[in-house]
Write a structure and sequence with these properties.
This protein is of the alpha/beta class and 481 residues long. It has 12 helices and 19 strands. The protein folds into 2 domains: 348 residues, Glycosidases (TIM Barrel, Alpha-Beta Barrel), CATH 3.20.20.80; 68 residues, no CATH class. Helices cover 26% and strands 20% of the residues. It starts with a helix and ends with a strand. Bound molecules: ligand H79.
């Protein structure tokens, strides 16, 4: 259905909601009441079946690459001898760098080491099915060819190339999806751009330089919306995801609606819950944490860093282990979510080697065990996967969830996968909700049948003495329901 048909259908639906048939109600969103959005978004108008079709590839993918790359990779966390203690892409804000000084970085940005081919190949070999790259972060610098604003990689740097275009070509060639992150409200170098209020910055605007002052609506109409339009129009079939961030209080329903009008022209597009203006978008976006129970009834994606920064910071060497990263991916899949794992290329466009090494390890695991991740749905077990802290709060403000690492489970049709971390030479679960008809290890290419017994609700499986993979060995259960 094209957009015109969709909005006509929606208009009718909303005009006569009293006469909706039960089938129509079932086919529409969980909440069939008309939204108060000034412009209805696709999520407000599509049927559940249309939504399932639109989200299908994303739900199957389970694992994506986030790329934070921009001018901030030049200071790499340090400005005039001062180190930021926060995330690298926030350096301009954190160290109150004047607009003119920050913009001057563009003149020295020449990332000759960037290879779209290598980055796409890295994502693919790691088992990732999509890439989301920062097209413009809060610093306002566009990493693409923009006619709407000259502060961009093609017009303002000696590099003169559009990495988004090169990535789009490579993604098309290598058969992987591409999405764009765009900071729609925060923009610290464009007059009128928003800034989160913090530190000793202006208590109302969040600004620290007069050059940042101006009309937000002018910023929206002269930069943000035109650039979003460029991103949607100029990359032939991409982006398939638009990843908004930090709407701030400036992104009112009326302003967000102007962006929704653009998004609605792309009926296959997926966009997250950070547009603002009360639009819920398609996906929940827990940042730097894995929710205890996922988001039942919602699509969701944990975005996380490999070390502690998104944008490259030369002195951040706090890299998570491959074991942690692989287990995080499994944990997320077992709760029905996606893992958007970040890399931060440096000012030459090179991906830090410790990040490459970890992604290679993940790829090795996925090559053998990907079947237990892709296209799966959440666990069918009610076994707890950790405990809630009595004292600590998590990033969502709720009691912090501390995972334990015995095992997780994912499901696909009649197959139940048990990803075992803590290998004991046998597997036991008190309540197995299905009848098991066979068991084997995914890493055993012969799929040698394992002995198992089901007594009452309990299931016991005999396993070899040694794990086939110390990080996670996958037990496959064939079941009937
Ligand atoms: O792009 C990455 C972050 O830069 C971005 N979202 C991810 C994907 C992000 N922007 N804002 N936030 C996340 C949340 C705000 C964090 C803050 Fe702070 C806490 C702003 C001020 C205090 C972190 C710590 C940034 C500066 C100090």
């Amino acid at each position: 259905m094209n957009l015109l048909h969709r909005s006509i259908a929606t208009g009718l639906l909303f005009a006569s909601s009293a006469s909706l048939s039960f089938a129509q109600l079932q086919g529409s969103k969980a909440d069939p009441t008309p939204t108060k959005h000034p412009v209805p978004a696709i999520q407000d108008t599509e049927t559940a079946a249309q939504r399932d079709a639109r989200m299908a590839w994303w739900r199957d993918a389970r694992f994506g690459m986030f790329i934070h790359w921009g001018l901030y990779s030049i200071p790499a966390g340090e400005w005039k001898g001062q180190r930021t203690t926060h995330i690298g892409e926030w350096i301009m804000n954190d160290l109150s760098i004047p607009v003119a000084d920050y913009k001057a970085l563009a003149k020295q940005f020449n990332p000759t080491g960037f290879s779209a081919h290598d980055i796409v190949a890295l994502a693919k070999s790691s088992g990732m099915k999509y890439i989301v790259i920062t097209s413009k972060h809060h610093d306002g610098f566009a990493m693409f060819d923009s006619k709407a604003d000259p502060f961009n990689i093609v017009a303002a740097t000696p590099y003169h190339r559009d990495p988004l275009k090169e990535l789009a070509e490579e993604c098309r060639k290598q058969g992987i999806k591409l999405g764009f992150y765009y900071s729609q409200a925060q923009d610290w170098t464009a007059p009128g751009g928003a800034a989160i209020v913090r530190g000793n910055h202006d208590k109302v605007t969040g600004h620290w330089d007069k050059a940042q002052d101006g009309s937000f609506d002018d910023y929206l109409h002269k930069k943000s919306i035109p650039q979003i339009k460029e991103l949607l129009e100029n990359y032939k079939g991409y982006p398939v995801v638009v990843w908004f961030d930090t709407p701030t209080k400036m992104m009112t329903p009326e302003r967000a609606a102007e962006i929704v009008k653009l998004l609605n022209k792309y009926p296959n597009l997926i966009w997250n819950n950070r547009l603002g203006g009360t639009y819920k978008g398609d996906t929940e976006t827990p940042e730097q944490y894995i929710p205890a129970q996922g988001f039942p009834g919602r699509d969701w994606e944990s975005c996380m860093t490999i070390n502690d920064t998104w944008g490259y910071k030369s002195f951040d060497t706090n890299f998570k282990s491959s074991e942690t990263l692989i287990r995080n991916l499994i944990d997320i899949a077992s709760k029905g979510g996606n893992y958007l794992l970040n890399i931060g290329p440096d000012s030459k466009g090179i991906v830090p080697q410790p990040e490459v090494d970890r992604l290679h390890d993940m790829g090795k695991w996925m090559k053998v065990n990907g079947e237990a991740i892709y296209g799966t749905s959440a666990t069918i077990f009610d076994t707890p996967t950790g405990t809630f802290s009595a004292t600590e709060k998590g990033r969502d403000g709720k009691p912090k969830f501390n995972p334990t690492w015995e095992w997780r489970s994912t499901t696909k049709g009649n197959k139940v996968y048990i990803e075992i971390f803590d290998w004991k030479g046998h597997f036991h679960v008190d309540r197995m909700p299905r009848k098991v008809t066979g068991a084997y290890l995914l890493a055993d290419s012969a799929h040698k049948p394992l002995k198992f017994t089901q007594k009452g609700a309990a299931l016991d499986v005999d396993l070899p003495a040694q794990a086939l993979d110390p990080v996670a060995t996958v037990l496959v259960l064939n079941t009937t329901r």
